Amino acid sequence: MADFLPSPEGPDLSNPGIDVTGGSSGLAEEKETLHTLRKDEDYYMEDTFMVFQVGNRLFRIPTYLLAKESQLFGGMFSLPQNKESLEGYNDENPIILPEEFSSDDFSNLLHAFYPQEVSLSLFLTTPKWISILNLSMKWNFTKLRAFAVSELERMQELTPLQKVRLGRDNKVSSWFIEGLTAYVNAPSPMTDDEAMDLDFEDHITTAYRVYRIQERQLLGGYNRPSVKQEIEEVFKDEIVSLRADEAALRQAEPDVPFPPTPAAVDPLWGDVDAGPICPDEPIIPDVPAFYEPDVPAFYEPDVPAFYEPDEPAFYEPDEPAFYEPIAIPAEPASSYASKKKSKKKK
């Protein structure tokens, strides 16, 4: 029992593993080491977790990427908060998003920022990429928006209606033109539902304009302009506005720090039977993530949008429209009677 009681004389300092005499020098060396340490610029994260309520679901996520990739969230997280409320720090007082945002859309966005598995690419369905594109546009995630656009273009599963709507909402002028071109070239007219979906808010004449372009293409003959030229002319104001917004977004898009797409990464390592590529040794393509051609994005021909021939539209021959034969005049009866009288006299 006495073995477990402390010695009245104090602790035993005879243990050679404890430095009693050189303690001051050890502390000095430790302080000197701390002065030489520096925080890593990329991976020393002073992060906090915040709770969001979207619909009837709670999400608790780190705020670092949201604040870094979006000025909207960066400004929101930097605002001073009342110590009594501390919004977002617990389940009882979450940050509540407006009802227009669905929990599924928010979950898809977080899947892009915080993938559950380490992978060379991010495999999502077309509907999920569409929801990511819509939210990234609304919340100013410019790099994520660019990544979603590139993935949807690679998958090539958008319908003409989706191209027109998404092109308008997310400032992708090429999708807008491609969708309208598909409707003009379609063998059958658009349905009433498609016409209603095209004409929303202030775009109330889209279906009618598409119909007029179709009509001119059918009646124009060989001298008609191309479908793209007519769309550029008829929807000129809207296309110019889309391109201006698109250029502003492109200037705000630095290099996209997301996983490369399967099209940009060789799925096999060496031989065909060698199996999947090693995640630690990815094949990094030499081409940039987004190709920027030297030529302008849209070709502007020198010829006018509508060809005006020098010849008249209808051929007008020099001859009369109907043939009128030259009639031979008949010999008058008086001359015939005079001939008979002259014969009798003889």
From TrEMBL:
Domain BTB: 46-122
Region (Disordered): 1-29
Gene3D superfamilies noted in UniProt: Potassium Channel Kv1.1, Chain A
Family matches, as Pfam families: BTB (PF00651)
Residue ranges the record marks as coiled coil: none
InterPro entries recorded: BTB/POZ_dom, SKP1/BTB/POZ_sf
Protein name in the entry: BTB domain-containing protein
